[in-house]
Design a protein that fits this description.
The structure is a single chain. The chain has 493 residues and is of the alpha/beta class. The protein has 18 helices and 23 strands. Helix 1 crosses helix 7 and helix 3 crosses helix 5.
């Protein structure tokens, strides 16, 4: 018997899946942690939080499923993308990690736009320069914290740091590296020309590998701390979007994934490194050989509902919010929400954008606000979907994942606004599952990734189909949603 571990380092929690490769049985443990906001617009986490959370999850899995746990043959990793981890020569972080939703590096982005011509951005990076990506965050540290920057030996992404705690080795891999603005997507290597233009030393960047390659085995120190066998092989892993794609069984073009977590994304598998002509979307290397993932990203998806729950309505759980939304007809009786609470990426690429409730009336209550937030987030994601389709990526159906997939009312909203059938993978932690699948394939437990998908990926029997009356209502409301931004965008700064 062989077991596989899949570790996902999210923005709000770490999750670990223990998979019995023979029976397909899965057990998941999770531990939440907070995002630190020491100043307005900042978003940080101490990397040690991630490792401690992983250790706690491993301890629970070991206590509950010790026999399977001790037979762990391989470990896969997934993690939140774009973040910047700076570590010294002993792999000890020199400062808190700067996360994907951090907005402090606006001036550094302006500098980078002058240093990197747009044709080079399109040809090499295939992504727009924007706050929260690792490169502008790195320049911010270099400029504002020179003493800390001087202590840095390595640039890593979040899951790379956790992998270093597992193996004692430093390394990078293509999917996360391509989400840093430091990477040449077509060459699948660090963008040395851009680093030189920015005056950033190439010594900071570890050798880059493909996601499925094996970095090494569990270190003696880690084995002592966690009880994992030293023989367990650890692959380089991948970003969470790529892992979710694999965990949803999306291994070819034709299916879009709608992920509503803290942020939100509409993503597609792509055989080529296609990019939007206006650089409104993101194109990154996939965790699979020679493939790419293309997606549009909104900054405040589940975060918008969490804000409404915690800061406005003071409710205790999301199930209650979903029940409230169910009481209101589609369209929220004219109430429209723009979910730009901390700026927006796709399609506006505007860090100054802010949230709006439009059309408030005396008849509106908390139930209308809950549904309007769900609808507004889905409108934002529809804009991403339309851009991907215009790029030639086909969408025959949509798989929903993340917190938005746990609410039947939100799933029906997605079907009506996207005008597509929506399904849900029965395994809720698709990123963990994708990490397990790639690791199991890498060490030969599965013959290839398709075999792993046939063995492990199943879908809930419910299919959410568009209601044509709702589709037409949302079509009119979507046009108004888009017009609101056009009318007010000059006021945001």
């Amino acid at each position: 018997m062989a077991a596989i571990l899949g570790i996902d380092i999210g923005t709000s929690s770490a999750k670990v899946m223990l998979l019995d490769a023979k029976t397909g049985e899965q057990w998941v443990q999770a531990q939440a942690y907070d995002v630190s906001t020491p100043q307005t617009g900042w978003a940080e986490q101490n990397p040690e939080l991630w490792w401690q959370a992983v250790r706690n999850c491993l301890a629970l899995l070991k206590a509950q499923h010790g026999k399977v746990y001790r037979e762990t043959a391989c470990i896969g990793l997934s993690g939140q993308m774009h973040g910047l981890v700076l570590a010294d020569g002993d792999c000890v972080p020199v400062r808190p990690a700067i996360l994907w939703n951090d907005q402090r590096s606006g001036e550094e982005c302006e500098l980078l736009r002058r240093l990197i011509p747009e044709d080079l951005q399109r040809r090499c990076l295939k992504n727009r320069i924007f706050p929260g990506f690792a490169l502008p965050s790195l320049l911010w540290v270099q400029r504002h914290e020179p003493e800390i920057f001087a202590r840095a030996k390595w640039v890593m992404q979040p899951k790379d740091y956790v992998r270093s705690r597992l193996t004692g080795c430093v390394g990078a891999e293509v999917s996360d590296a391509s989400a840093s603005l430091l990477f040449d997507l077509e060459k699948r290597d660090w963008a040395w020309e851009i680093l030189e233009r920015c005056g950033v030393s190439d010594r900071l960047f570890p050798e880059c590998h493909e996601s499925w390659e094996i970095q090494g085995t569990v270190s003696k120190e880690c084995a002592s701390l966690t009880g994992l066998p030293e023989t367990a092989q650890v692959i380089y892993g991948m970003g969470d979007q790529q892992a979710q794609s694999i965990g949803n069984g999306v291994l070819h073009e034709g299916t879009f994934i709608c992920n509503i977590g803290t942020g939100g994304q509409i993503s597609s598998y792509s055989e080529k490194p296609v990019s939007d002509s206006q650089l409104r979307t993101q194109t990154f290397c996939h965790g699979l050989p020679g493939a790419y993932t293309v997606y549009g990203a909104v900054l405040n998806a589940g975060m918008s509902l969490k804000w409404l729950k915690d800061q406005v309505l003071r409710e205790t759980d999301f199930r209650q919010m979903s029940g409230m939304a169910q009481q209101v007809p589609p369209g929220s009786e004219g109430l429209i929400f723009l979910p730009y609470l901390t700026g927006e990426r796709t399609p506006h690429m505007n860090p100054d954008a802010r949230g709006i409730f439009f059309g408030l009336h005396l008849t509106h209550g908390r139930e209308h606000m809950a549904r309007a937030v769900m609808e507004g987030v889905t409108f934002a994601l529809r804009e991403s979907m339309e851009i991907l389709e215009a790029m030639g990526l086909p969408c025959e159906r949509i798989l929903s994942s993340g917190g938005g997939a746990s609410s039947p009312v939100w799933l029906q909203i997605q079907a009506d606004i996207f005008r597509r059938e929506v399904q849900v993978c029965q395994v809720k932690e698709q990123a963990c599952l994708g990490a397990c699948m790639l690791a199991g394939t890498a060490v030969g437990i599965y013959g290839d990734i398709s075999e792993a998908a046939r063995s492990l990926v199943t879908f809930a029997p419910e299919v959410y189909r568009p209601d044509q009356e709702h589709v037409e209502r949302y079509r009119r409301q979507y046009e108004k949603y888009r017009e609101i931004y056009r009318r007010v965008k000059k006021l945001f700064p």
